[in-house]
Automatic annotation (TrEMBL):
<keyword id="KW-0808">Transferase</keyword>
<protein>
    <submittedName>
        <fullName>Glycosyl transferase</fullName>
    </submittedName>
</protein>
<feature type="domain" description="Glycosyl transferase family 1">
    <location>
        <begin position="184"/>
        <end position="349"/>
    </location>
</feature>
<dbReference type="InterPro" id="IPR028098">
    <property type="entry name" value="Glyco_trans_4-like_N"/>
</dbReference>
<dbReference type="GO" id="GO:0016757">
    <property type="term" value="F:glycosyltransferase activity"/>
</dbReference>
<feature type="domain" description="Glycosyltransferase subfamily 4-like N-terminal">
    <location>
        <begin position="15"/>
        <end position="175"/>
    </location>
</feature>
<dbReference type="Pfam" id="PF13439">
    <property type="entry name" value="Glyco_transf_4"/>
</dbReference>
<dbReference type="Pfam" id="PF00534">
    <property type="entry name" value="Glycos_transf_1"/>
</dbReference>
<dbReference type="InterPro" id="IPR001296">
    <property type="entry name" value="Glyco_trans_1"/>
</dbReference>
Length: 377
């Protein structure tokens, strides 16, 4: 069977859930009838990770942040590569790919919607511009992949026809979340006491992730429980304010900012429980990863998390913007080891049964085939 030539496009300036998704998706699809190439606009960590995996990458980094010459650059790439389908991710890539593809022979464009736009751009002007860029060019897009039911519903409320949307949940490389390393050794490498009760987060440090609420809860918790520590994996503009909050409360030695890590599966095994106090999520990939590592989870029920989290079945549910509730739920799990084990096992089963990479990749491949077949009729 001949391979489908698929071109993915993404900004690639940061390394978040969308970038990780593309890496994992293409590693599988490149072994299953897909010849992938990725175009990104920054020669950063993401591009390097693609190269490490022998996935061909084209970097268009000679243009400004919002430079209309990118249309010509992309048009040239499309003409040279002759993809059978273009798959874009993110507002900037969506916008420029749709404009560039207009001058080419008909090639279907599919866009994965990874998150709800209004939560990605807290600045009103930035949100207005991003939303206009997305909405103005949707008429040149053929199909959408929604990573959660909430995103699918959001697209439908914006006027996208249901038949033009396919729901495909992100998958987890579940086998990577096992480790032979002792938790004590992992904690030592991260500067955590061996006997601490460790709560953990893996997140971009941005306002929408609700980490200020968690810091307020942790300050209250730390006063009553001297063994509790917080491991923060990730980086972003909220790091400074969070560090200042910890310093002012006198608990800097109990909040551990580990920064961006490429060994997240290993780091998860340093945690006793995982928390996501986010105000918005496309799917909640970090939560699924914690569940794959058999960690009990506490989370707000936002976005795609509602697709898989059930209170007191495979996790605990908390309201948004409520530090007291966060604290109380942490205490519940701290004091009930049996409940922690029950939630951890149920969470692992959820991922294993419904959220594997293979399931995600095969559904995506079949969608590619359908769109390419329809385009050649």
């Amino acid at each position: 069977m001949s391979k489908m030539k698929i071109l993915h496009a993404i900004g690639g300036g940061e390394f978040g859930g969308a970038e990780q998704h593309i890496l994992e998706l293409l590693e599988i699809l490149s072994r299953h009838a897909v010849d992938p190439v990725v175009v990104c606009f920054y020669n950063s960590t993401f591009a390097e990770e693609l190269r490490k995996r022998n996935i061909r990458v084209i970097v268009l980094d000679t243009y400004g942040r919002f430079d209309f010459r990118l249309v010509k650059g992309l048009t040239r790439v499309f003409q040279e590569e002759k993809p059978e389908l273009i798959h874009s991710h993110g507002v900037k890539a969506n916008f420029f790919c749709r404009l560039a593809a207009r001058s080419l022979p008909r090639v279907p464009i599919v866009t994965t919607i990874h998150s709800v736009l209004r939560y990605d751009y807290p600045n009103p002007l930035a949100y207005f511009l991003a939303s206009r860029m997305e909405l103005w060019t949707r008429k040149w897009n053929d199909h959408y992949i929604a990573i959660s039911n909430s995103i699918k519903q959001s697209l439908e409320s914006d006027g996208v026809k249901s038949q033009d949307i396919t729901l495909i949940h992100h998958g987890i490389p579940i086998e990577e979340f096992k480790t032979e390393d002792a938790p004590e050794e992992i904690r030592r490498s991260l500067g955590l006491p061996a006997d601490a009760f460790v709560i953990g987060t893996v997140s971009r440090l941005v306002a929408v992730k609700g980490l200020t609420d968690l810091m307020q809860a942790f300050i209250l918790l730390a006063e009553e429980h001297p063994r509790v520590h917080w491991l923060v994996i990730g980086d972003g503009p909220e790091k400074g304010p969070l560090e200042n909050m910890a310093k002012e409360a006198g608990i800097s030695d109990r909040v551990h900012f580990a920064g961006f890590r490429q060994d997240v599966p290993r780091c998860l095994h340093a945690m006793d429980l995982f928390i996501s106090p986010s105000y918005s999520e496309g799917l909640g990939l970090s939560l699924l990863e914690a569940m794959a590592a058999k960690k009990p989870v506490i989370s707000t029920m936002v976005g795609g998390i509602a697709d898989f989290l059930v209170d007191y079945l495979n996790g605990l549910v908390i309201p948004t913007k409520n530090p007291e509730e966060i604290k109380q739920n942490i205490v519940i799990l701290m004091e009930d080891e049996d409940l922690r084990m029950k939630l951890a096992e149920a969470g692992y089963r959820t991922v294993k049964e419904e959220y594997t990479l293979t399931h995600m990749a095969m559904k995506t491949k079949e969608l590619y085939r359908q769109l390419i077949r329809a385009n050649t009729k």
